[in-house]
Write a structure and sequence with these properties.
- The complex is a heterodimer of chains A (211) and B (90).
- Chain A is built from 6 helices and 2 strands.
- Chain A is an all-alpha fold and 211 residues long.
- Chain A folds into 2 domains: 100 residues, no CATH class; 79 residues.
- The longest helix of chain A is centred in the C-terminal third of the chain and has 34 residues.
- Chain B is an all-alpha fold and 90 residues long.
- Helix content of chain B is 74%, strand content 0%.
- The chains are: A mainly alpha (211), B mainly alpha (90).
- Chains A and B meet through helix 2, helix 3 and helix 4 of A and helix 1 and helix 2 of B.
Chain lengths: 211, 90
């Protein structure tokens, strides 16, 4: 009943009428349910030491959504595939199958177009034909004059676009770690793994209660 | 003491590719035009035809690279100057 007095989207500690002694239990219950919607279960009644407040953690989790899974005990942990900060940027470009396909297609268009043009135009002597239908090499030569420049242009543009992609995703060495350290540990390891950062997130004396 | 931000190596590569493509395309077109003035035969003829046909496209990609680079640099500068995400909220 007490939880209905507060907006469930926000920490009751920062809403009018909050009494720490009176609403301690409601704060734990209400705020944990709202935090779980962003994949971060807190189960905390007091501000988390070293890492800011619980509201801070929830705010960071909302602004930097992590790929997390909720466990039956209410503790979320980050997927091992999402990297350090949970952003897609953490995945190296070389491991992206679409980037690999782009490299393959772009290089193929470039090299293939040049080879096609060279092969089709190696027989320079063809200026016409005798008979009812033109020879295949003549058709190929005429087609290559139109198709190959377009193929090579697209291939070149693809390679340049990949360079742009790498330039946008490039970060100086150590920048990601510094940003992550500035934001504070957002992720929580699964229970029992003995992760020190996970222990920092867990408030002393408070544990997730099954809902 | 301010620490100098490391250079993005891909920006340098994009500058080189953009300028290189413009020069290559233009030089190929000029070479092909010059070659076509004199009657010639052999392997240079299809290459000259190719340079004359694709030279403008190659130069166009190089020009587009340089233009895109300006947008990218402006975007990266804006990202560097943007304030960091607030550490706490009320």
């Amino acid at each position: 009943m007490e939880s209905e007095e507060f907006d469930p989207r926000f920490d009751p500690a920062f809403q009018p009428g909050f009494d720490p002694e009176k609403h301690r239990s409601s704060r734990r219950r209400v705020f944990r349910s709202s935090a779980s919607t962003v994949g971060e279960s807190t189960g905390a009644a007091a501000p988390v030491p070293q890492s800011g407040t619980v509201a801070n953690l929830a705010h960071q989790a909302a602004s930097h959504p992590v790929r997390s899974q909720a466990t039956p005990d209410g503790v979320a942990y980050e997927s091992s595939h999402s990297g350090g900060d949970g952003e897609p940027h953490s995945v190296p470009l070389g491991q992206n199958p679409y980037v690999r396909a782009l490299w393959f297609v772009s290089a193929g268009l470039l090299v293939g177009g040049f080879l096609l043009y060279w092969w089709a135009n190696s027989d320079v002597g063809i200026q016409g034909w005798e008979g009812s239908s033109p020879p295949f090499i003549w058709v190929l030569q005429q087609s290559s004059w139109v198709v190959v420049p377009a193929m090579m242009t697209v291939g070149l543009a693809g390679l340049v676009g990949l360079l742009f992609l790498y330039a946008i995703r490039w970060r100086p060495e150590g920048t990601v770690d510094e940003e992550q350290a500035a934001r504070g540990p957002l992720t929580r390891s699964h229970h029992g793994h003995g992760d020190s950062s996970a222990e920092q997130l867990r408030p002393t004396g408070a544990r997730s209660e099954p809902s | 003491m301010t620490r100098r931000r490391p250079r993005n190596p891909y920006i340098g590569a994009l500058w080189a590719v953009g300028i290189g493509l413009i020069v290559l395309g233009a030089a190929g077109y000029v070479w092909a035009s010059w070659l076509s003035w004199y009657p010639s035969s052999g392997a240079a003829v299809p290459l000259a035809d190719f340079a004359q046909g694709a030279g403008s496209d190659i130069a166009l990609v190089g020009l587009g690279t340089l233009v895109g680079l300006q947008f990218l640099l402006r975007s990266l500068r804006a990202r560097d100057r943007a304030p960091a995400t607030p550490a706490s909220s009320p």
